[in-house]
């Protein structure tokens, strides 16, 4: 060559060409590269790699001179020159077999320095050039490699996505290497282009054998589930490359690959516990006897399935079932697998058609047959309910097609049907027998669950023999170890899938589950006992039963709950409460989960719903407050086991979404405690006496209902007197809590559990007399409250107390008529607000209890009632004073001196009318002062005649003052602000 013949002239010419190449303009964008410049760079790299025969030494010298010249320009001031130098070095070094140590060290140091260049394009080209200098070291893990250290540091701190892509392409990834972990972690990069680059590099550089199981699982999980279609497609191409490589290995070494696949698949050694124990000694199980020994059968795995089973075995189907299934479906979607061909690969004696005395399926093979069967079943287009994303769409497409398209769809469905028939056993009995054989064998619980899911999806139970075989298998599965440790809830869901096929009606399925659970519980109603496996079996059945029960307000709820056995009604006492004290954390976690499911039954708005499963004689709110929430909070805060805490957190979050956090706090803690009051928006610290009175009332047990009813109103008055302002007192909250205590409990003695009463339930053992007396006193005190905003909350609480008390009405009808009259007067006084409507509803309820609703109180009884109310008001025990004297908009705010004079004249005339009964009021006032603490005087409740006289005096005074209206703003002498009545 001319360059080698005349080195000096040739070198000068080559250097001039290199200078022109380095000074070529850069592309304006990432996708606008200059094609001529790129060709020149590739030519220079190829030219430097050529060695003329017989003159290799001169060629090496020329290459080193070119590289040294480029190295001298690596720190040029122009960023374009630096980028082009690194680009030419990367292209030239990729084709060099070897370099002298001195030149290699200089190039490595210069390129490492360019990794810190301020221009991203220079850093990217330097990273590409450094890939040839990676040194694995003695250990082969690149732990002491300076190039890997620099690339990893750049990858972790780099913000430019193009630089990160270049670093990923340059990183040396091998099994057990240090950069491999960071390489896999880049599957979570923020840029979809970087994530895609990870899978493309792995497809070209990383065989499946170079990855650990967890790393391969991470690549499959994150790649196939990526939100960007391009990344998911790259992950599918990675799986296809792995599968193609495994097929090539099987073609080269079939025997070695088959043995390796069987070892990975777990065919030789089973590590799982038996799903169905050989001999059940505990109660609730039927002895099945030991399983017969199985003779070693020949290998029934077709050679076409070997690479696929090796791939699934490398992913660990037992530990990572979702990832292995996603990999299978991705291979089918990409066209790398044809389920029709694989369905026929098993042969007449292989796959699912093997005999019951043949070798059992391994985990990977069982998963493979399930996925293939489900895909073929969906391809037929007849199970849109089970596979709405595939089956229904396929069915609609076949129905809407016409002509040639319809023929194609029909042929495709026919091929899928033929392949499915070739894959499944000849009869449903054979499939159920295969499931039963795997479920009874140690180490085959995963395969049994896959076959069980396949049976629940693809089995045709139209004929009586197949349905009978499925029903018998379901009874066996419900009677043995349902929730074994390796499978847990996944096995329960598979059993439920088969149960839905056998029992098409929910009531039948609930009845079957209830019967199976009743057989496992003690028949005498005592607490359950047994081994840990039996406890888990019972709790698994209980969880399945609670999940299938409809809400109490559903149409079929009452009939379904009424058919449950008696042992199920006391489930909390016989099973859940003892399970919370078990030494095993798995048992406690199962109990907490069952309690959470029981708490979710029903709706929060139902007041008198009875939860038949946890407690038949408790209201829903009381069971939640006394049993459900304490158990969940104990499991969360005091148990200490992560499994139990996780179950408690899940249950509490579900309840919070259904009921609301504040409702849960009111149920689980006393609503009148300072913390609860603060949460409700009240300042409990400003009312210590009221909070203390509320706490004292809350300490009374529910059995002391008569004493509680007698002490309610005095405690409320003390709370009113102790508060700095009546509106901030704890009296309304105290009355509401007293009502809550009196409402809780079962039906009264001598009343059937299902008997309903229009007046509401009466606490057990509580005489209706105290409740009726408390209701009458509360209504009388509500009528005695003065008008105004200060007394309105207390009056409303009194009416709510009277309306919520259990009033039976079986006693004297005179009490009912008195309460009815008081409720009607309270409704008229309180108006159309919530308290007025509550009083009107109480009056209507009392009218329903009245035997003679058309007849009211006679004149004497009505006069006695009015006198009693007036006497109650005359005691002056309510400390409102003039706080409720005048409401906004009355004459006191717009009448000036005339209104004040009218009110003064009104009070004078009213006081003259009251002089006749002064002696009686003095006696009543003296007795009231002895029985109650001092309080501000409240105007008494006048009779109708006195109120009429007062209104007449006000009208006459107003007529007098209108004749001589004073000047606006003037103040009448001696006029005072007297509270109006």
Automatic annotation (TrEMBL):
One cellular component (GO) term of this entry: condensed chromosome
Compositionally biased residues, Acidic residues: 913-923
Alphabetized SUPFAM superfamilies for the sequence: ARM repeat (SSF48371)
Region described as Disordered: spans on this chain: 746-770, 886-981
Originating species: Elliptochloris bilobata
Low complexity compositional bias, start-end: 891-901, 924-943
BP GO terms, sorted: mitotic chromosome condensation
This protein's name: Nuclear condensin complex subunit 3 C-terminal domain-containing protein
Cited Gene3D superfamilies: Leucine-rich Repeat Variant (1.25.10.10)
């Amino acid at each position: 060559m001319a360059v080698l013949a005349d080195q000096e002239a040739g070198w000068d010419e080559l250097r001039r060409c290199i200078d022109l190449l380095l000074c070529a303009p850069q592309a304006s964008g990432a996708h606008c590269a200059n094609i001529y410049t790129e060709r020149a760079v590739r030519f220079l790299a190829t030219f430097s790699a050529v060695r003329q025969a017989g003159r290799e030494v001169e060629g090496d010298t020329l290459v080193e001179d070119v590289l040294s010249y480029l190295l001298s320009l690596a720190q040029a001031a122009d960023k374009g020159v630096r980028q082009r130098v690194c680009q030419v070095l990367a292209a030239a070094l990729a084709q060099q077999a070897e370099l002298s140590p001195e030149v290699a060290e200089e190039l490595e140091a210069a390129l490492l320095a360019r990794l810190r260049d301020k221009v991203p394009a220079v850093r990217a080209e330097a990273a590409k050039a450094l890939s040839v200098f990676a040194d694995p070291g003695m250990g082969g893990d690149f732990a002491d490699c300076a190039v890997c250290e620099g690339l990893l540091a750049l990858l972790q701190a780099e913000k430019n996505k193009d630089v990160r892509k270049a670093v990923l392409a340059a990183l040396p990834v091998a099994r057990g290497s240090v950069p491999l972990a960071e390489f896999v972690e880049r599957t979570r990069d923020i840029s979809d282009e970087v994530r895609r680059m990870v899978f493309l590099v792995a497809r070209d550089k990383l065989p499946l054998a170079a990855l650990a199981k967890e790393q391969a699982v991470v690549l499959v999980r994150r790649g196939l589930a990526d939100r960007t279609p391009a990344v998911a497609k790259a992950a599918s191409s990675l799986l296809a490359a792995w599968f193609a490589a495994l097929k090539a290995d099987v073609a080269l070494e079939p025997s070695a690959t088959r043995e390796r696949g069987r070892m990975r698949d777990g065919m030789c050694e089973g590590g799982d516990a038996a799903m169905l124990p050989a001999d059940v000694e505990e109660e609730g199980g039927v002895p099945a006897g030991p399983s017969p020994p199985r003779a070693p059968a020949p290998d029934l795995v077709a050679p076409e399935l070997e690479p696929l089973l090796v791939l699934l075995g490398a992913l660990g189907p037992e530990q990572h079932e979702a990832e292995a299934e996603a990999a299978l479906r991705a291979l089918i979607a990409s066209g790398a697998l044809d389920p029709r061909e694989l369905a026929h690969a098993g042969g007449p004696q292989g796959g699912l058609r093997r005999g019951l005395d043949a070798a059992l399926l391994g985990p990977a093979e069982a998963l493979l047959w399930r996925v293939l069967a489900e895909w073929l079943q969906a391809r037929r287009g007849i199970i849109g309910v089970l596979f709405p994303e595939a089956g229904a769409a396929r069915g609609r497409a076949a129905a809407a097609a016409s002509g040639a398209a319809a023929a194609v769809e029909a042929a495709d469905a026919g091929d899928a049907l033929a392949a499915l028939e070739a894959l499944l056993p000849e009869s449903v009995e054979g499939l159920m027998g295969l499931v039963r054989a795997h479920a009874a064998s140690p180490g085959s619980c995963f395969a049994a669950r896959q076959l069980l899911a396949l049976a629940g999806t693809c089995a045709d139970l139209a004929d009586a023999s197949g349905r009978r075989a499925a029903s018998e298998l379901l009874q066996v599965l419900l009677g043995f170890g349902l929730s074994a440790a390796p499978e847990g809830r996944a096995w329960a869901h598979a059993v439920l899938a088969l149960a839905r096929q056998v029992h098409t009606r929910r009531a039948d399925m609930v009845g079957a589950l209830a019967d199976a659970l009743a057989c496992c519980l003690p028949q005498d109603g005592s607490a359950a006992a047994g081994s840990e496996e039996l406890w888990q079996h019972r709790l698994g059945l209980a969880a399945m039963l609670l999940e299938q029960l409809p809400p109490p307000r559903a149409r079929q709820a009452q009939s379904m709950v009424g058919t449950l056995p008696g042992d199920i009604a006391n489930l909390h006492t016989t099973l859940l409460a003892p399970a919370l004290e078990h030494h095993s954390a798995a048992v406690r976690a199962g109990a907490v989960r069952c309690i959470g499911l029981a708490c979710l039954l029903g709706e929060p708005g139902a007041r008198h719903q009875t939860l038949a499963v946890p407690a038949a004689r408790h209201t829903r709110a009381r069971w939640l407050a006394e049993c459900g929430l304490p158990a969940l909070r104990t499991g969360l805060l005091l148990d200490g086991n992560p499994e139990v805490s996780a179950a408690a957190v899940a249950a509490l979050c579900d309840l919070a979404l259904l009921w609301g956090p504040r409702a849960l706090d009111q149920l689980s803690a006393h609503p009148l405690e300072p913390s609860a009051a603060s949460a409700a928006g009240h300042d409990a610290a400003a009312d210590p006496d009221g909070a203390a009175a509320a706490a004292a009332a809350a300490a009374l047990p529910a059995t002391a209902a008569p004493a509680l009813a007698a002490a309610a109103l005095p405690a409320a008055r003390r709370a009113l007197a102790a508060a700095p302002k009546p509106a901030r007192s704890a009296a309304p909250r105290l009355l509401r809590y007293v009502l809550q205590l009196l409402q809780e409990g079962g039906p009264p003695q001598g009343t059937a559990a299902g008997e309903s009463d229009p007046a509401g339930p009466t606490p057990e053992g509580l005489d209706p007399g105290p409740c009726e007396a408390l209701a009458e006193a509360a209504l009388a005190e509500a009528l005695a409250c003065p008008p105004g905003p200060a007394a309105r909350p207390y009056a409303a609480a009194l009416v709510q107390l009277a309306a919520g008390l259990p009033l039976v009405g079986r006693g004297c009808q005179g009490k009912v008529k008195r309460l009815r009259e008081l409720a009607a007067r309270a409704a008229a006084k309180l108006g159309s607000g919530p308290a007025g409507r509550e009083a009107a509803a109480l009056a209507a309820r009392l009218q329903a209890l009245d035997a003679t609703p058309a007849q009211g109180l006679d004149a004497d009884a009505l006069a006695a009632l009015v006198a009693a109310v007036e006497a109650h008001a005359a005691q002056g025990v309510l400390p409102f004073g003039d706080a409720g004297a005048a409401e906004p908009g009355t004459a006191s705010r717009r009448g000036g001196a005339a209104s004040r004079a009218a009110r003064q004249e009104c009070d004078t005339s009213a006081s003259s009318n009251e002089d006749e009964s002064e002696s009686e009021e003095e006696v009543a006032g003296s007795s009231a002062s002895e029985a109650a603490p001092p309080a501000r005087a409240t105007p008494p409740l006048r009779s109708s005649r006195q109120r009429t006289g007062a209104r007449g005096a006000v009208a006459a005074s107003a007529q007098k003052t209108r004749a001589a209206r004073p000047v606006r703003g003037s103040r009448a002498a001696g006029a005072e602000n007297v509270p109006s009545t």
